[in-house]
Specification:
Number of strands: 5
Order of helices and strands: HEHHEHEEHE
CATH class: Alpha Beta
Structural class: alpha/beta
CATH architecture: 3-Layer(aba) Sandwich
Strand content: 15-25%
Distance between the termini: 22 Å
Largest sheet: 3 strands, parallel
Helix content: 25-40%
Number of domains: 1
CATH topology: Rossmann fold
Number of helices: 5
Radius of gyration: 14 Å
């Protein structure tokens, strides 16, 4: 389903000027243990659908989740931010120089996870521009 939604969403994003010059799509990564137990990363499947329609490559192995975080459910916005603020790393920063990246996640609740990913990418100071896409948001 996530890939199919990505296909539909990508068709819409292609009509928006701000999304026409993307270089990479990066899904929010899962920790290795969570990926093994779940068997898939729903954000990666969403990214694959976007990529297929938009003709922009997915880079799913450069931004990684290096620490397993606690579940975000029932946490306040601040506690969510604390939970994810230092859990991501970039493996090969040189591959991101001067890139316009579409950072994707399945659901945004407070934005803490996306913010943590974006801050890690932007901290590289290598001319990165970030746009964001999610399937849904929780209020």
């Amino acid at each position: 389903m996530a890939k199919m939604i990505g296909n539909w969403y990508g068709s819409d994003l292609q009509t928006i000027d701000e999304y026409k010059n993307l270089n990479l799509i990066i899904p929010v990564p899962l920790h290795k243990s969570k990926l093994i137990s779940r068997g898939y990363n729903q954000s990666e499947w969403f990214a694959l659908g976007l990529s297929e329609t938009m003709k922009v490559p997915v880079q799913n192995n450069n931004l990684s989740r290096i620490h397993k975080s606690e579940t975000q459910t029932r946490k306040t916005r601040y506690k969510r931010w604390e939970n994810v603020s230092e859990i991501f790393e970039v493996v090969r920063p040189e591959l991101l120089n001067d890139k316009h990246i579409l950072l994707v996640d399945d659901v945004v609740t407070t934005g803490a996870t996306l913010e943590a990913c974006a801050q890690k990418l932007l901290s590289l100071n290598c001319g990165i521009k970030i746009s964001i896409a999610t399937i849904a948001f929780a209020s």
